[in-house]
Amino acid sequence: MAGKILNYYAGGNTARGFYSLYESNIEGLDRIFILKGGPGTGKSSLIKKIGKVWNEKGYDIELLHCSSDTKSVDGVVIRALGIGIVDGTAPHVIEPKAPGAVEEYVNLGEAWDSKLLAEQKTEIQHLATKKKEAFQTAYQTFARALKIHDDWERYYIHNMNFEAANKLTQDLVEQLFQGKTLDKKADVRHRFLGAATPAGAKDFVPNLTEDLTHRYFIKGRPGSGKSTMLKKLAKASEEKGFDVEVYHCGFDPYSLDMIICRELGFAIFDSTAPHEYFPEREGDSIVDMYDITIRTGTDERYEKEIALVKERYTEAMQEAIGKLAEAKSWHGSLEEIYVKAMDYGVVDEWAKKIQAEIEAIAARK
């Protein structure tokens, strides 16, 4: 019987540039293979292939998805074996802490024909520059969108009942934890709820929450205290000794969108656009921040102003997503060049070496 697959993003295209949470998810692993190589060198395929083998052997795996290509993955973690395989090329550069002992570099560049690539050096440099410029413009546009979002939030912050927000948070702490504590250090993992991708906003909320008994859907407006409440709940979980998965906002990594405490069987998350979901099974419930914390009639009082700022925000986000799509296009052209210069037999040999080492580790468990 196949194991479970947990899908999430550990890196994101955000208003603060490319933001990495990879370290949090590979921390504590005994063996990490860091793949190096250019576009089209088979990193994602190798990761998927080995992940599939061990998942079919019955092991739970975690797939770290790529925010710049919805069909690619940047890593796999087989936590029961203490194994991780990750793409260690820019922008998700991973610094080894115990090179050789824990981390092992896998140079897939050994499989390419350097002479063939040298003949297209000018084109490679041109495409790489265009790709970099598209990403930079995307990040600048996301940053502009964040400032617009701040303007949007002010209409609600200025009409917020902070006392009611604090009471709601305290009530939720009592409801979620019921006075329970565990006598251990909590394991805290930081991830992204979703990601801004060339195909728009994507998330894995259904997959991440499918085995949980209780799901709390937070509804509200920008600035109604959703992230602040989640930060307090994450802190409470950690202080009480419960392992917690902390999911950051794929647009602003300084904000939180969800926390999951599997030991208590619950998730509580921001269920507003672009990751809007509604209760659909027993154990699902809504937490309405607008109704509880915002002065009645705020939407109506500032209807025109809010509509205008929302329109500006949507336009900026669409423009940024367009730039991510452009960057992906340049990356695709680079891949075509590298694919023609690759000997994938060498990549297959690396896959066999990694697989053999994982099998040896599994045999010792």
From TrEMBL:
SUPFAM superfamilies: P-loop containing nucleoside triphosphate hydrolases (SSF52540). Gene3D superfamilies: P-loop containing nucleotide triphosphate hydrolases. It comes from Sutcliffiella horikoshii. InterPro entries: P-loop_NTPase (IPR027417). This is ATPase. It comes from the Bacteria.
